[in-house]
Hints:
single chain; mainly alpha; Vanadium-containing Chloroperoxidase, domain 1; two-stranded antiparallel ribbon; 9 helices; 2 strands
Amino acid sequence: MPHFIITLILVFSFSAVSAQTAWNTFSSDFSRSYERVTTNFSDFFTFKQPGYAYFGVPAMFAISTPADRFFQRESRNWTSQTASTFKNLGNNYGEGLTPLILATGLYTGGLVFGSDGIREKGRTLTEAMVYAAITTQTIKMIAGRSRPYTEQGPYDWGHSSWADDSHFSFPSGHTMAAFTVSTVMADGTGWMGHTFWYGLAGVTAWARITSNKHWFSDTVTGAWIGFTSAKAALNKDEQEVSSAGWKVEPGLSSMTLVYRF
């Protein structure tokens, strides 16, 4: 019996210490991310990252929109069983739950198992999705472009709305999410990792066209926003690595002294 009591005391003590450590880490990460996000948002209207996401949108659209009709016609021929399988894969990969589950899983897993690299990957992905999702959804509501299935053509714009999904064609949210995830996950993985992750993102872009949900230019622009938003978050990581030294970071309820190296 005494051994059992001692074991319980040790387990609860260890759990309390672990929980406190996890909370302190989360608090520090939250403060860092808040500072990084607000700084990056001030850069949205500059030629720095993630300003590229905004300033590049007209260029991406202008380059790709002449091919809208071509890809719409060609996609009607992609009806094989293999094409259907890849279409389902791409649509699922670009779903909004994918980055949410992945970012949460990476961050929580890194926190529980004490892996800074995995935890940081989850935090960076969350930041990247904040930039990309806000940019994409804002443009969608303002642009009001009709989706291909409405049969209004690729130049039917101006149906500004908060909730009308049939006019949320530009840019592609699924493609944005896929390229945001793939850019963050491919970082530091070498050419094989890049091939795998960007291949998945490309399948998503293709799937959105074959599903008659988006024009080709929607997917090109969505890919650009996802890629540049992820690079903006990753760029902050690189800046922090290059700025070594002691730093006081505000937490949710305390101040933390950390050393970056």
